[in-house]
Amino acid sequence: MTPTQPHIASSPNGRQLPGHRVMLGRERPLRLDCGVELADFPVAYQTYGRLNAERSNAILVCHALTGDQFVAEPHPVTGGPGWWDLMVGPGKPLDTDRFFVLCANILGGCMGTAGPREDDPATGRPWGLHFPVITIADMVRAQAMLLDHLGIEQVFMVIGGSMGGMQVLDLAATYPHRVFAAVPIAAAAHHSAQNIAFHEVGRQAIMADPDWCGGDYLSEGRHPHRGLAVARMAAHITYLSEGALHRKFGRRLQDRDVVTFGFDADFQVESYLRHQGHAFVQRFDANSYLYITRAMDYFDMAAAYGGVLADAFRDTPVRFCVISFTSDWLYPTAESRQIVHALNAVAANVSFAEIVSDSGHDAFLLDEPEFHRVLRGFINGAAEHRGLPRAAS
Amino acid sequence: MTPTQPHIASSPNGRQLPGHRVMLGRERPLRLDCGVELADFPVAYQTYGRLNAERSNAILVCHALTGDQFVAEPHPVTGGPGWWDLMVGPGKPLDTDRFFVLCANILGGCMGTAGPREDDPATGRPWGLHFPVITIADMVRAQAMLLDHLGIEQVFMVIGGSMGGMQVLDLAATYPHRVFAAVPIAAAAHHSAQNIAFHEVGRQAIMADPDWCGGDYLSEGRHPHRGLAVARMAAHITYLSEGALHRKFGRRLQDRDVVTFGFDADFQVESYLRHQGHAFVQRFDANSYLYITRAMDYFDMAAAYGGVLADAFRDTPVRFCVISFTSDWLYPTAESRQIVHALNAVAANVSFAEIVSDSGHDAFLLDEPEFHRVLRGFINGAAEHRGLPRAAS
After folding, report:
1. What is the distance between the alpha carbons of residues A63 and A107, in angstroms, rounded to a whole number?
2. Residues of A in contact with B33 (CB under 8 A)
3. Predicted structure pTM score
4. Residue B134, SS3?
5. Domain with CATH 1.10.1740.110 in chain B
6. What pLDDT, on a 0 to 100 scale, did the predictor assign at position A13?
7. Min Cα–Cα distance to chain B from A138, Å
8. Which CATH architecture has domain A20-193+300-386?
9. Out of A133, A190, A250, whose CB is closest to B251?
10. Residues of A identified as active-site
11. If you average pLDDT over residues B9-19, what whole number do you get?
12. Which residue of B33, B205, B267 is in closest CB contact with A230?
């Protein structure tokens, strides 16, 4: 298997992207939930570790809203560490000495996979709002096509946090025999009214920016950076707990002893948020943000199964480990419990851990020893059942 | 006492405003925390009920961030009911058959009181960002000047929710002998990092709008309506609990049976938020929003008293009734408890009620029978101690 690189992918700030990129759907197009068919579309992905001869040691990592395929290597745009560098690598919970870790930029993304930033083959110009609106299930169909391409019949594990966890649930439900174990983290089986509301604010901020140009900014050579930064700032607050914000920033002032009686960033938390906004727009595409948030809003697994979530998992052979964090108010534990209850209702093999953490939703990205310990335990148990070699001791 | 109307006030959408308006600070200017002095500045206010001969039955209502003086009458811009119509009127908890209810548009506001929308007397043009940055304490100083003007030495009660509650606390601390009873509702003695963060997002949304024109939009004949609408939408989510959003909207679709695979308001909650944004910009000024959110961010009563909140209330003769709501995550009960603990530490006369409600922060504006019952009880008790006549039975 030699991954093809049909043409060079670029990041939202125009930088050439390293890594793998394949064209999928040439023979059998991807039929999207909206009815449109995507043929011959790119998927960019990265791998860490080696696929064993039996092709049985693959771990598919599904990334979240603003993540990408650069899981465990310096990010090609920011230069910062990969978003799950703490989790993926030799001797880490997703141990690349044992497992073949794979992560693809999601459908609708902006780091090389088909999305509104890429060119529409029909016109040779960026898709923009002509890109079809996608769903989590569509993202998962593209993931399955990538597994086909790589010759992986069944992954040992699919794992992801937040929107990544939604993909984990959908993949396990739609392709139960292609998944040995599934780990949805800080996720939910549907998007709540509050989740939709926060996303709608972000979308409105982007669409209110005159540089959005009705979605056609790439053709116009403009960038709705101000709107996208505001969207990111609003979202970022929801990723942190009140306790984490208090601990990190409290009411401390930024490089000053007294307030300025003005609208500069007097408080550290303001300065931090502004930095988050400015950094984000360098590496993300505004239309991608619209499409991906929309896909999350549309996510409602029970609705797809006649209103009964348990029916999504009836007779599932998959081993589940559901993980939530105590201070996550965006995807609170109660929503993970709903998943666990559904799995229990069909007597699925499921373990559940609520991790005590004050870091909020973002805890799944952070150094949370108890979280990592739970995950190592689950992975080792599942690997044994799958007949994979033990970790080196 | 005949309130003067030096010139006609207008609303942000240019409509002439009814009601009272006085010029204050002509003889003794208002010295602001930032060091600037305001002389000869307008304050617009409304009254309901009659001041008794002893001038002892006044209730000062302090409004919240986006409130105004039109407490219990049709709003002159929207035509909707006054924001506390449920609370203020004959036979209602703030019974206008017994009490003289008074509410002034706050300093920095946009409904007739001095703020960035009003003309700077020095230039004859709108203040814009040349208006001095104000604090909650400055707002309260202006309230006290209005009481002076009206010849009211001591109010029977000062009451307000959210930012209104901050003013209640500051007024009781700064002018303890001018207040018989004080009712801070859904408030806090300081603004948390999360509160500041949400406000900063709103400010950035406004300032990102090119129609904001660096704050000079009024002189340019433009209006940053898109940015202000986004700010309002983000804030509005924080006023509701997740439960209230779920109960009101859930994942129900707006006037359609299936999703549209597009970026229209598919969900009721999206449609509702967009409506909130659009309606708000008709009645509010973007620069006012900047100034008032800033005043709230700066609010930290303990800091003003050497870090010890209790010192703000040492030897206070004021009777307090502190009220919070179980589902208010913006100003959670824990923050009201801090106020109660500080009052207890100085042996103040304080009662505390946490009202069970799933309506979130906005509960103080809604028909919450238990809240109204608690308030009636406190008012009747305090009125008896003050020697005011009982309610008609």
Report:
1. 11
2. 261
3. 0.95
4. coil
5. 194-294
6. 84
7. 12
8. 3-Layer(aba) Sandwich (3.40)
9. A190
10. 162, 328, 361
11. 88
12. B205
Of the candidates A388, A392, A12, the one whose C-alpha atom is nearest the C-alpha of residue A180 is A388
Q: Residue B284 to residues A284, A298, B11: CA-CA distances in angstroms? A: 33, 33, 8
Question: If residue A159 lies in a helix (H) or strand (E), which one and from where to where?
Answer: strand A155-161
Helix (H, G, I), strand (E, B) or coil at A253: strand
What is the Cα–Cα distance from B162 to A57, expressed in whole angstroms? 55
pLDDT, tens only, A44-91: 999 999 999 999 999 999 999 999 999 999 999 999 999 999 999 999
Going across the sheet that includes A155-161, the strands are A20-24, A41-48, A100-104, A58-62, A155-161, A179-185, A319-325, A349-355
* pLDDT per residue as tens digits for the range B294-326: 999 999 999 989 999 999 999 999 999 999 999
Task: Report the pLDDT value the prediction gives residue A3, as an integer from 0 to 100.
Answer: 41
- Residue A346: count of CB within 10 angstroms of its CB: 16
A7: confidence class by pLDDT, cuts 50, 70, 90: low
Contacts of B261 in chain A (CB under 8 A): 33-34, 132-133
pLDDT, averaged across chain B = 95
Q: Where in chain B is the domain with CATH 3.40.50.1820?
A: 20-193+300-386
Q: How many whole angstroms separate alpha carbon A178 and alpha carbon A174? A: 9
For domain A195-294, which CATH number applies: 1.10.1740.110, 3.30.70.3400, 3.60.15.10, 3.20.20.10? 1.10.1740.110
* CA-based nearest residue in chain B for residue A203: B263
Q: Which CATH number is B194-294's, of 3.40.1280.10, 3.20.20.30, 3.40.190.10, 1.10.1740.110?
A: 1.10.1740.110
The strand pairing partners of A352, in sequence order, are: A322
pLDDT at residue A104 above 80? yes
